[in-house]
Amino acid sequence: MRKLLNKLLVKFGLLITKAPTLLSDKSIGVSESIPAELTEKVRVGEATDTPDNELFDIFSNDTNVHKWHHYFDIYERHFGRYRDRPIKMLEIGVFRGGSLRMWKKYLHPESTIVGVDIDQSCAAHEIADQNVFVRIGSQADPNFLAKVNGEFGPFDIILDDGSHKTHHQIISFGALFRDALKDGGCYMVEDCHTNYWIKHVDSPETFIDVSKQMIDMIHEPYFDRGETHFRDGHENAVSELELSYLSANLDGIYFHDSIVVFDKKKRTLPKSQLR
User: What is the SS3 assignment for 220?
Assistant: First the structure.
């Protein structure tokens, strides 16, 4: 299986080294269009400060939760706008229940937090009288995810902190983005650095690979069309296009260290104006 994965990864430009299995420097191709001074090696030191925000304070006062420190500013940036009202959040991956408690304290007190995990013991972390629920099943099972959505969804926030297996991340996104995420919602996949560790790479394309392709899909309206097709009042202007669901509902993609974020919003055709 590992030999097959290596062959597939080589095909896609990701050459794997020996376990524990980080990608080698040679594995990531760098475009010759990037100036050499931007690709030369520089030293990066360890962090000396901790995040200065409320969510990190909540994290610091709890136990049984594992998070990377640099995630907290990213959480604040993308989730902060949901704190002023009751929302529904789905977290893939329960572990020891600490993150469910963290989100419950951070979000509006009337919010509903739902965790899913394949580990039966995680059911013990449900706190139903506080609207914190746990359901047991695989994130790679679209039928299970559809059941969770039918019971609790659709959701304002979906956070994938599950197995970190690449095919699981891809399947979950495909099963949840369209039907389980509200318009105006946020879908976040964290720990994407695992896409560069062979023990987590079990698909021909990683989730990072697929996410890069979605950048092109956002720009689908411009395929084979010029600026005048979108110019207000121009004779070439189009009033309607048939686009893929993703292109019609994906407002933005944000790449951070180890995190990819997708904002969902029903789009209208872009418009330009010449004054």
Answer: helix
DSSP code, position 25: G
* Cβ atoms of 52 and 66 closer than 8 Å: no
Q: What is the pLDDT of residues 235-274, one digit of tens each?
A: 999 999 999 999 999 999 999 999 999 999 999 999 999 8
Under 8 Å between Cβ of 139 and 174: no
Nearest-CA neighbor of 59 among 44, 75, 48?
A: 75
> Per residue in 83-130, pLDDT tens?
999 999 999 999 999 999 999 999 999 999 999 999 999 999 999 999
Distance, CA of 41 to CA of 62 (rounded, Å): 38
Please list the helix, strand and coil fractions of the chain in percent, rounded to the nearest 5, in that order.
40, 20, 40
End-to-end Cα, the chain, rounded Å: 60
User: pTM for the full model?
Assistant: 0.88
Complete edge-to-edge strand list for the sheet that includes strand 181-189: 132-136, 112-117, 88-92, 155-160, 181-189, 259-264, 250-256
Give residue 191's region: left, alpha or beta (phi > 0; psi -120 to 50).
left
The structural domains of the chain, ordered by start, are 69-264 (3.40.50.150)
Q: What angle do CA 158, 153, 195 make, to 5 degrees?
A: 25
pLDDT at 27 over 90: no
Catalytic residue list: 164
